[in-house]
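Team,

Forwarding the record for the chain on the shared tracking sheet. I've put the sequence and predicted structure together so nobody has to dig through attachments.
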Amino acid sequence: MPSVKQCGCTISRCEWKVMSLLWRSPLPSSQVCKRCAEEFGWSPSTCKTYLSRLEKKGFVEAEKSGGKFEYRAKRAQGECVEGRARQLAEETCGCDQKAMLIRLIDECPLTKKDAEDVKRALEEKIARLEAKDGSCGCGCEGGKNGCGC
């Protein structure tokens, strides 16, 4: 199965909401729609539209069980997050990526452990950059392309 990036599929903010329910556990369509109504104020037809879109994009699958459809996520949450992060990085100009990262860290509700994990990831990135003489790997020749390296 192709990755999120390879298939070129993206999912909307509302589709992410549906996926967040299905990443917890598979659910019959009636339960998905009930939870979407309770949590997001959606009508059953809105919920079913998003389920249908996600199925067409290959993010969920429906299995008929006892006359009802049960939906389950076909793509892991981590895979989708990784694909979205790649997409965001590709869409953001190199000179804006630092500001984007800082803003994401500021906007996301992080626990102390989460913040420590982010710090560790940055320390690992710094170590990799130092091993490459500080080059970011974008081929910018030391900032000549305006990437801020």
